[in-house]
Amino acid sequence: MVEVYRPETLEQALDKLAVGEHTLFSGGTDLMVRHSVRPGMSPTFDRDVVFVDAIDELKHITEAEIEPEGEGAPDCALFIGAGVTLSEIESHPLVPDVLRQGVAKIAAPALRNRATMAGNICNASPAADSLPALYLLNARVVLSSLKGQREMALEDFIMAPGLTQLRADEMLTHVVIPKQDLPESFYHKVGTRAANALTKVSVAGLARVVKGRTGKGKVVDWRVAFGAVGPTIVRSRELESLLVGQPTEKLTKPRFVDEVVGMYSEIIRPIDDQRSTADYRHQASINLLRRWLSQLSMQ
Ligand SMILES: Cc1cc2nc3c(=O)[nH]c(=O)nc-3n(C[C@H](O)[C@H](O)[C@H](O)COP(=O)(O)OP(=O)(O)OC[C@H]3O[C@@H](n4cnc5c(N)ncnc54)[C@H](O)[C@@H]3O)c2cc1C
After folding, report:
1. How far is the CA of 41 from the centre of ligand 1 (A)?
2. Residue ranges per domain, the chain?
3. In terms of CB atoms within 10 Å, which of 6, 248, 270, 294 comes out highest?
4. pLDDT digits (tens, 9 = 90+) for 6-26
């Protein structure tokens, strides 16, 4: 017989997780679908369920000091608690714009009032709409258990579709976004409809261009991440470094743009599934990359 717990403190939740296997339940918007049996029937769970939506200490978005990871690295970060809903993230002034754009594209307002970003992350879908922005922002996750806390880069936490580094006695308690001076950004999602549609392909980008004395632009920061084109989000710091330091004028040269697009083409490896075909996904993501490079060339 499956039991259900609804702890009100983190300590109570971690006490529960320390013994046996459980299903952690935040907003339940993924779980209710995953465990559904038939329309009109209640879902069934095979393990005890721990609801984590009543833990007030996980419902905050705050800025706090962090240990810098090296010289010039940020000494302050944004902490987003696992109990914060997508709607709260979408409207919070401290949340970086690129993340707000991604979160705002998830489902519809009623669902965002209930669902959490922690659930979106731990579901580990390559099509999850919060993930491309979080990858670009170098987000980290804090995993807590009675034994203590461990923190790791989000891209190390997510291993494969539906698979993360989370241990049975742990829960994700915070997402940490190092404070950074953020340049212009965008999030573009391709779905069957503008709202309430799962992603066929998505692209998030950040770029900063500075102008020299001659008025000519130079790229000083450039990041791009693709969703739903591989088993996890695709971001390559190596390819990004090819763009950084380049004059924007170079982005008007078809040969250079073809070279960059060609290299991304190699690492974008989508699959066919019920939502789209691999060919469509590949072409759509490359088109979005080309469009963005061309916009930058005009700066
Ligand atoms: C109609 C519909 C439309 C949707 N549209 C989109 C969309 O457009 N884009 C998109 O990205 N997603 C979409 N989703 C998926 C889903 O709504 C999101 O992934 C949502 O963010 C999940 O959050 P949740 O709090 O409801 O997670 P839950 O369903 O509660 O949990 C999801 C997973 O995360 C685990 N988990 C939850 N919280 C924690 C925690 N604190 N620590 C460790 N593990 C945890 C759970 O055990 C479970 O495995 C849609 C879902 C539905 C039903």
Report:
1. 20
2. 4-51, 57-178, 184-297
3. 270
4. 999 999 999 999 999 999 999
pLDDT at position 106 is 96
In Å, what is the CA distance from 145 to each residue of 97, 111, 121? Answer: 31, 28, 18
Using one digit for the tens of pLDDT, what is the confidence trace for 245-296?
Answer: 999 999 899 999 999 999 999 999 999 998 999 999 999 999 999 998 988 8
- Helices 254-267 and 278-297, axial angle in degrees (round to 10): 140
Closest by CA position to 268, among listed 293, 297, 289, 243? 289
- Rounded Cα–Cα distance for residues 21 and 91 (Å): 35
Position 194 pLDDT exceeds 80? no
Q: Tell me which residue has its CA closest to atom 2 in ligand 1.
A: 107
Probe residue for ligand 1, chosen from 22, 53, 120 as the CB with the greatest number of ligand atoms within 8 Å:
120
Its CATH architecture, for the domain 57-178, is 2-Layer Sandwich (3.30)
Given the DSSP bridges, would you call strands 48-51 and 4-5 parallel, antiparallel or unpaired? parallel
DSSP summary character for residue 287: H
Q: Are 224 and 250 in contact (CB under 8 A)?
A: no
- Taking residues 139-155, what's their average pLDDT? 98
Establish how many alpha carbons lie within 13 A of residue 13's alpha carbon, considering only the half-sphere containing its beta carbon: 29
CB 141 less than 6 A from any atom of ligand 1: no
What pLDDT does 296 receive? 83
CATH superfamily of the 184-297 domain: CO dehydrogenase flavoprotein, C-terminal domain (3.30.390.50)
pLDDT tens, position by position, 155-168: 999 999 999 999 99
Residue 72 has what pLDDT? 81
Whether residue 84 has its Cβ less than 6 Å from ligand 1: no
Ligand 1, atom 17: closest residue by C-alpha: 29
